[in-house]
Design goal:
about 170 residues; alpha+beta; two-stranded antiparallel ribbon; 3 helices; elongated
Length: about 170
């Protein structure tokens, strides 16, 4: 049938038949399943790429004991750090496209690895995590919005008296 069309038809018909044949043959080969036999696959296809080729991992920023996921981007204009010879305190602000529950789980799991103890967690569309170390307190405010998740990491020195930010009663005006 194809030969009869090509012998009697115009150039447009010949081109149409040729393209139709190419498309049919191309779709036949495109739909062929890949081999599922592991022995048939190349040896290097099963091995994961080295870490250097996978891209950056999570980061420690100014607070060298608080790991931040790589998906969160530092907002330098909204962050400030007070550095003393013994420690760094302040706030670091991040934005990223990370689900709030995933980010909360990340910090609950990783802060403990860096020596922080979870004191409390308030979870909703705004999540607040409070961690402590012997000399510092860390408060994380995670806010979910339509397009991004906002993360604030507040680190403050711990008062030796245990009453953070509250002056002793003897120093209050009478």
């Amino acid at each position: 049938m194809l030969r009869s069309l090509m012998a009697t038809g115009s150039n447009a018909q010949r081109i149409f038949c040729f393209l139709t044949t190419c498309i049919l043959l191309g779709s036949l080969f495109a739909c062929t399943p890949k081999a599922t036999d592991p022995a048939a696959a190349p040896a290097d296809a099963a091995a994961p790429a080295p870490a250097a080729e996978q891209g950056p991992t999570d980061f420690y920023y100014d607070f060298d004991d608080i790991l931040v996921p790589k998906e969160m981007e530092l907002q330098t204009g909204d962050s400030f750090i007070l550095e003393t010879p013994s420690q760094k305190n302040g706030v670091m602000v991040f934005e990223g496209k990370v689900e709030i529950l995933s980010l909360t789980s990340f910090f609950i799991n990783n802060m403990n690895k860096d020596g922080w103890n979870l004191l409390s967690a308030f979870k909703s569309s705004r999540t607040i995590l409070v961690f402590e170390k012997t000399d510092r307190i860390c408060v994380m405010n995670i806010t979910d919005s339509k397009f991004n998740t906002l993360l604030e990491i507040w680190v403050s020195p711990r008062s030796s008296a245990g009453n953070i930010g509250v002056p002793p009663a003897s120093n209050l005006p009478q």
